[in-house]
Amino acid sequence: MSSYRYRFVGYEKLPSGLNADDVQLHCRLPDRLVKEIRDSNYAKRYYLGLAVQLSFLALTGRNPDSKLRMPTAMLRMLCEQLGIHANTTAIGSLKALYQNADRTLANHRAWVREKLGLAAYDTSAEERLRAALSQQAIDAASVDEVFNSAEQWLFDNKIVLPGKRHLQDLARSAFRVVEELALTTIRAAVTPVRLRAILKVMHEESMAPGISVLEWLKQSAGKHSLKALKEVNTRIDALKALGVHLWKLEGLSIGRIHAFTQAVVNRPPSETARRIEDTRSVEIVCFLKHLLGELSDEAIFRNNRHTSDIVRSGTKRVQAKQAQRAHEYRCSIESMRDIAANTDMNAEERLAAIMALAEDVLGLPPVSHAEVVRETLTEQTTRVRTVLNGMTCLDLQADPAHPDCKLLAALQKLKAAGAKELPTEFDTSLVDSKWRPLLEVPDRVAALQAFEGCALLRIRKGLLGGSLYVNHSATYQSKESLLIPQEEWDRNKEALCEAYGLELDPRRALDLQYELLRAGLADVEAGLEKGLLEIDEGGSVRIPAIRAMEEEPELRRTNQFLSETIGTTQLPDIILEIDSRTQISTTLLGRQPETAQELVALYAGLLAHGTEIDAKAAASMIPGVPVSHVSAAMRMLEAPGRLRAANDSVVAFQQRFPIVNLWSDGTKASSDMMALDATRHLSIARTDPRRKTAAAGIYTHILGSYPVIFDQPIVLMTRQDAPAVHGIDAYNSNSEDRIKVDLLAVDTHGYTYSGMSVAKLLRFDLCPQLAGLPDRKIWTPRSIKVPDALEKVAIPTITEKAIRDGWDQTMRLIASIKSGRVSVAWALARHGSAAAGDDVRRCLDQYGRLLRSVFLCDYFTNDTFRREIHTLLNRGESVHLLQRAIYYGRVAAERGRRRDELRSISGAHALLTNMVIGWNTMKLQETVDRLKSGGQPIEENVLRRIGPVHFGHINFRGLMSFSVDRYASVLLREHAAPKRARAS
Question: Which domain does 34 fall in, by range?
């Protein structure tokens, strides 16, 4: 459900500062209800009172208090709707409208509830609410979140909200039950004596002098180095020494554990020490359990990166060897020329010498990339063993039936025995055939080094592909432990597939795609005859390039005129105005701000996360806000879900303007990565191949009407299909009443065959703009006859058997995604190229090839379709320009080392971007409406090409002044005597 709908739910009084637009949007009564009032048997003098109650109750879910004063703009608009004249400024309250007629007021309240279809709050409603809150409290981070959930649940179920105090009591009670359940679960997992010892140890001095164990554990990981890897491994060993990996906390949800963890992370250790023992027990145990999973993931991430570094060094040696071989070839040719010119030798002698030299050159083995990498892994003994030794703390596990299990056992046996060389009787069948010659050499020390290098590559591949797992990891757990249990799937798969809209019969799914492919091939053949495309002798497809539309002077003039009419503004003014219309500050805090200082500190924290400045710089730019308040706000913004909910509110606000429908219908989006410059000391940083500087990736999903609908941090130089599909699934599944995205445009990095399959099974299409398009082939099954004209571009290698064999387990995977057991990102990461040989992987790969063939048939023949994808991607790039204007610097060395902080940087950056887009959209709509009312309408085809991402009129830097007093009546809970919070 759109969070914008809940803007005033639960309010006991409407803000007096509501503007005319908000009044029209929120308070205007439908014509049906206006007619109901006029047709009622009540006296005409009560019409306005009925209208006020209808509007207020429909908007807030509460009955208005009889002494409550309504906004003048609201009264004026309702009078216009009813066609009555009233002195709205003289109406002090609802009671004044009824002139002390309390019984009439009570009767009118019952009539209003009936017309709105609302039920009174009674014992039955309270029981249902308690049951709902018991579920909501499982993942809630605070009592305030449970309270907000209670108000929204009653609003959705058309039940009049009771008093706030009653709902607060219910929220506290539900939250307390979860805390008691958590304490019971923890006491069952950790003995009381052990628990007291752990609480004591947390505040003792750590191995790092001068700080406690709790402070030491809270420190973020350092830069990408072996020293930092050892620090991560040391913390994992310390947690395992406390027995954290043995704790069974299945009774607590991941969200609840994360919420308790955030409580410890976001406060000083001294403050944690002052909590009562039960609270400390719950928070510390959840913190340690969550931390072990995060550190295990971090250790695996760093181990894999160090392995990649070794492989990369081998790649560089390949280039050096190829250059050396080229030099040898050149020298050989020069020698042949010298021999041919040597007059001291007769023709037969010269020919024999040339032939001998040629045989020597041709006898040289080819420079193989894989072979050189294997040699490098064998020679880099110290680096390989350092990484392998660091994996000891992970307790790697494998399926006993998988070959990796035997290889892992052999490696652990050799290490336990302290072997210095590989035994002669070692079973070389454990390794791949390419490695066996390196293990069968007489030098057994070198053979051991080769085995360790092979094991390192296999471990990395096994962890990425899921054949190896770590039980105490947050991400790299066993597939079987995360997916729907096999017994449950076998028992309920028909019902689950029906509920989730999945096709259990692979034959029916294939028949549908085969029909589309046959039609697509016929269209390509027809397009070939019409000259819409060409196929050359080499089988390359040539299609006309998309021509840029001619520049229109009218468009340029209109764009310039609109920009000048809107005028310049400051970023703080945009933030305040958007907040006043969406209440994102309430969303971010979990409650309405109490004071202007608290509100401005929140904005400062948002700027410190979403731009290149830090807490100290934000406090300097906004005088009067202490650094400590900014830091506290930044930590608060790391609470899971808040930035995402705030972004959804701003997107919903932007989508309500009619001009948005000219840009897109809401069913199409694009996604791409934007590189944020960073220091090389950040572990997630990689070298950006374009700018040749260290950078961190922010992957954004951008709706066709420009707002950022999802964001997530990623690592550069990695395949982006998982974040691409994950973002759209999260957006589509987050709300039932929003328009779903059914087409996602991506570049080549954003797609794989598996990604196209998972996207299709989740009911949207992944449409890539492919690099090297002329050489792309159309994959087909052998059962489909390909027209003779297309034989050069068609490759009949799709294996239908692979799809049928893996279809059942693929549906189990998709059902697990739909049920929330695993994420799309996890599913694609564990079934990528590293999972080669897995049945699900082969099914997704082959089915994806079929889907890409259907896509290519449309792409080759439909010029409108190609232009649409190109337009979506271009709009995404225009949003990236705005994002770079907001975050033009780089991520500091001390920022983004924790995953929560990195997600907050991404979310805050997206929120600031959406604020600018939402404000521009609002101003464009206001300007267009004003011109239209003045007799100067602008043609829709011109407006369609003017987007809301311009930023030249906005000042993003310098001292910032937040005029909170202008919006205090809307934003602050207590604003009877608003304080002026300005920075000048």
Answer: 3-116
